Amino acid sequence: MTIIIKKCTLEDLHTLQEISYETFNETFKDQNSPENMKAYLERAFNLNQLEKELSNLSSEFFFVYFNKEVAGYLKINTNEAQSEEMGDESLEIERIYIRIKFQKHGLGKYLINKAMEIAIEGNKKKIWLGVWEKNENAIAFYKKMGFVQTGAHSFYMGDEEQIDFIMTKTLK
């Protein structure tokens, strides 16, 4: 088993879009209406939006490869790219998306560790993320990785308001 993490560039735009659609759809289609899923996917993962995110100097994307195949990705934000006002001493994990066939191989842990490594190198004091309150598997995983719920915020799936728990881990 070979696991490699590689920073994404604009050349990876189409692969990033493909994985974003696939993983988000696989994870959330059963709990949301087709109309809301379609609206969200088209807004969040269109090529212009992803290109803008990839070009933002305060955001970084990393592919995780499992045996030379792209298995998923990590998106982190600092400074003004964070989706909530958390200050300069925080790093946000905005996305950890793993394709279903690669789940249960510990890849999420590799990506969390990559985010923590970047946070420590950048002298950040905490790392945080938002996770849908109904995504019990993800919540359990984040708790296992040392995150605790510190708040909540609204997330819109199409026209439906949902609640994301904000989970934070303080770095030593």
Written overview of the protein:
It contains 5 helices and 7 strands. By secondary structure, the protein is an alpha+beta fold. It has one domain (3-129): Aminopeptidase. Strands 1-2-3-4-5-7-6 form a 7-stranded mixed sheet, sandwiched between helices. A hairpin with a 2-residue loop joins β6 and β7. α1 (13-28) crosses α3 (47-55). The longest helix has 16 residues, at 13-28. The relative contact order is 0.16.
Question: Nutshell version of this structure?
Answer:
With 172 residues, this protein is α+β, with helices and mostly antiparallel strands.
Entry keywords:
172 residues; Aminopeptidase; 5 helices; 7 strands
Chain-wise SSE layout:
Layout: E1 3-7, H1 13-28, H2 34-44, H3 47-55, E2 59-66, E3 69-77, E4 90-98, H4 107-121, E5 126-132, H5 136-144, E6 148-157, E7 160-170
Parallel strand pairs: 4-5
Antiparallel strand pairs: 1-2, 2-3, 3-4, 5-7, 6-7
Helix pairs in contact: 1-3
